[in-house]
Amino acid sequence: MNYTTSALALAAGLTAAALPAAAQTATPLPPIQVETVGDMALPPTEATVFAPELYRKRAGATDSTSLIQDVPGVDFYTGGGVSALPTIHGLGDDRIKITVDGMQLTSACPNHMNPALSYIDPSRISVLDVWTGLSPVSAGGDNIGGSIVVKSLPPVFAPAGKAFHTEGQVSAFYRSVNDGFGTSAALTAANETFSLGYNGSLVKGRDYYAGGEDHKAVHATLYESRNHAVTLAARSERHLVALQGGVQQIPKEGFANQRMDLTGNIGRFVNGRWEGEFDWGKVEAKAYWQLVQHSMDMIAGEKPGTMPMKTKGTDLGYSVKAEIPAFKTHTFRIGNELHSFRLDDWWPPVKGSAMMAPDSFKNINDGRRDRIGTFVEWENKWTPEWTTQLGLRNDTVIMNTGNVNSYGCGAMMCGTEDAAAAAFNSRDRSRVDYNFDMTALVRFEPTTQSTNELGYARKSRSPSLYERYSWGVNSMDAYMNNWFGDANGYVGDMNLKPEVAHTVSASIGLHDAAKSDWSAKVTPYATYVVDYIGVNYDSVVTSSNSAFPLLRLANHDALLYGVDVSGSTTLLKDESYGKVRLWGVLGWVHGETVNTGKSLYHMMPINAKTTLEHSIGGWRSALELALVGAKSQVDNLRREPKTPGYALLNIRSGYDWESVSLNLGIDNLFDKRYYHPLGGVDYADWRYNNQAGQVGALPAPGRSFNAGVTVKF
């Protein structure tokens, strides 16, 4: 599903191909209206637009993933306060292609505590392209679950005829459920040709409280994040050049469903792009670099014990894309890109420990993953009713890693690990995957009130460095490699094959001729994944009776199928009473391992959301009802907890003056105790209570009174 706001795209000049206009002039943005336009962007320049107006409506948003929570088919795995992991149609984490301003950012952490969307604050986002399922090959390779393309606020230039222009915006918010607060600022100085901008933000919160009468504090849910970015841009009549640099600091972030917490994350990046328009077409070129220094341990007071872990990761890459119109109705897109990732993951010795000393444990040593991809895409509008798109893509993935070692604590304590390290080091660890993708889609619009689509996609993804090269087979070592929120231990397999997904999707859409008053859409889909990376019990590393089993990653075939339903209607449009609009979404997905019929891990049960919105003048209000069914189909291999169904009611209201916006809201109005189906286990509480009883599901936040204000100048 792809969403678009053409009004904002024109105002901001920010369609993916409107190159010389890809910089915003100093003109106020109009109100945002989001409408459904289809499973695949046709043309791909259409985008899902979530402007700062949406961020202000959701007072207190700290995680950029929250901005796409209303897109049909999109859910999220619970992480830290700024680090949730999106999932599309049951496929999440590394299976989704996420780029931030053209940068492919990899989780440099054995627990995936620093995913791509954690590196950009919601206040800095202008546009998100969200493709669920049938994403075009031009949206990126090395994924099977869909694509999310994030674009930050565009550079601002002075209006024509004005020698110099300055503007700014500051925002602040408060959330009662965790005493969370945040502030952000955007400042610009520019003339017609050059622009210099700054964006900064700070968000911080304590452990949140769960709903219910006891208002239980959920341990290891505190967080703090700081982001700074500077953008220098220049434009001419048909060209735009921009250079951006920035730094992110997360001094602490608790993870209730992991054994570890984040105790430091510093990311530094440089990102440059050039966009040019020529008589024959348009070109976009980007190059980027990011260095991440990451550390984990148990935050004092949240979990007992100590076990320092360090990670250093470097992402480096480029992309070049061209769009070439031909013969009036044809459009060709070609591109080439490179992504190179380097990873070192080591665990320093603990002074005085018999098991974690005297050497550093090398989990991933000099890990290397290079991917080079090339694509070609052809789109043609044969008649006003029929449009087709066909894309082909090749990605070559080259992986390797250096020698590893245990803590070196002697044969009695580390003998098994020493033997595993020796076996690992003796093997040829280099791997090369030649992956091939194809996407084909046809759109049929028989009338101005009907849009129908049918498509097929073959998508592939190579394993990550952690999936192939995590080698520790002792419980303590394997437990540290866990990006699933279940507190189990995982051991990689360097012989894992790439995942290959075959997806078929169809959609039937009805709407008014102007696509503004009402719409309804149903999209069933099915995906068969060859060599899906799941898990096996392995007699070498685990016992099936363990409360937290140790599991070895393994290829299986998997089948996923489901349906998305969305719709909206305008109930009232009157000058005296304003506009009343009702919209809603419903999603259901089922996933199973083909050879066993058992449920895949982290499948979202049936869920729906409906919202009644009212606006008049500068005033806007909304009443939102979220319904989630009971999660009864779980992955028993991983001891996945079942969760009961629930209903939540949220309300919000706000008023916009010429330069000030005030927003108020209440989440979980009736303070319901509930458990998000993809929230994982409450490992922090289990440890805090001396490992008593069976570990349970992670409680979600209780009632929260939220307030936010934005001032423009």
Automatic annotation (TrEMBL):
InterPro entries: Beta-barrel_TonB (IPR000531), Beta-barrel_TonB_sf (IPR036942), Plug_dom (IPR012910), Plug_dom_sf (IPR037066), TonB-dep_rcpt-like (IPR039426), TonB_rcpt_CS (IPR010917). PANTHER family: OUTER MEMBRANE PROTEIN C, TONB-DEPENDENT OUTER MEMBRANE RECEPTOR. Belongs to the TonB-dependent receptor family. It comes from Paramagnetospirillum marisnigri. A motif (TonB C-terminal box) lies at residues 696-713. Residues 270-669 form the TonB-dependent receptor-like beta-barrel domain. Keywords: Cell outer membrane, Membrane, Receptor, Signal, TonB box, Transmembrane, Transmembrane beta strand, Transport. The keyword Transmembrane applies. One of its GO terms (biological process) is siderophore transmembrane transport. The keyword Protease does not apply. It is found in: Cell outer membrane. Residues 1-23 form the signal peptide. GO terms for cellular component: cell outer membrane. Residues 46-146 form the TonB-dependent receptor plug domain. GO terms for molecular function: siderophore uptake transmembrane transporter activity. It is a multi-pass membrane protein. It comes from the Bacteria. Pfam families: Plug, TonB_dep_Rec_b-barrel. This is TonB-dependent receptor.
